[in-house]
Amino acid sequence: MKIYFDIGANDGDFCFKWIEEKDVTVYAFEPQKELYEKLHTKSLDYDNFFVYNVAVSDNTDKLDGVTGKELFTYENHSVNSLFPFLKRDEYLEEEYVLKKIEWVETVRLDDFILKNNIDGVDFLKINTNGSEVSVLNSLGNLIERVKEIRTTSIVRGLRKSVPWPSGCKDDDIRDWMNTNNFEMSEKDVGQWYNWNFTDMTFVNKN
Predict the structure, then answer these.
(1) Which residues of 149-163 are buried (b: 16+ CB within 10 A; e: fewer)?
(2) pLDDT reported for residue 188
(3) Beta strands 62-63 and 66-74, pairing class
(4) pLDDT of residue 176
(5) pLDDT reported for residue 34
(6) Which candidate, 131, 186, 198, 125, places its Cα nearest to that of 159?
(7) Do 195 and 123 meet the contact criterion of CB atoms below 8 Å apart?
């Protein structure tokens, strides 16, 4: 049985490509409530698809005893992030309209893996609009159980400003992967609504 994780599942466009495969179990994580509810409804048609209304992070902040962070949700394109976006400028041509800020629960991947008795993760996809390294850090020593990782991130240097100035960029992710014995197997640079982004896939060298 293959195990796939989708961190920042959004509307499920990525993970729904997986669930028709044989011998696959998909775990999807989406902190934005409305998106989660749509995903959860769809998941009821499958016995190999599980959806969680949490953000994944190495965060330790707590509110009323629950570990969590503020989630910024925007009117545009169902975008949400643990980082606030910049105002419109000459590089960020589209004005991102803040819809709401809400406190969401966060979980660590190593805790989730141990709690659910998961021996290994065959594919981990991360698209969290700036908190990708935080997701990776939440694996702790269990990073050795992950075979392949795909990330989507802003490319540092292709523009002077990015939507989330405090969040990680592509070089932060590459540095993390190098330190943790992963090598890049694929890279694709593109543009989405004036964001220069890259999809990078890494494989575990262990």
Answers:
(1) bbbbbbbeebbeebb
(2) 67
(3) antiparallel
(4) 95
(5) 94
(6) 198
(7) no
Show the 3-state SS of 155-187.
Answer: CCCCCCCCCCCCCCCHHHHHHHHHHCCEEEEEE
List per-block mean pLDDT (blocks of 10 residues) for the chain, which spans 206 residues.
Answer: 95 86 93 95 93 97 94 83 72 72 97 97 94 96 97 68 68 93 80 67 93
Q: How far apart are CA 172 and CA 127, in angstroms?
A: 14
Q: Is 26:125 a contact under the CB 8 Å cutoff?
A: no
Cβ-contact 83, 164 below 8 angstroms: yes
- Give DSSP secondary structure letters for 112-129: HHHHTT---BSEEEE--S
Cα–Cα distance, 153 to 172 (Å, whole number): 10
Residue 45, C-beta contacts closer than 8 angstroms, at least 6 positions apart: none
User: pTM of the entire structure?
Assistant: 0.90
The residue whose two tokens read 């959860």 is 40
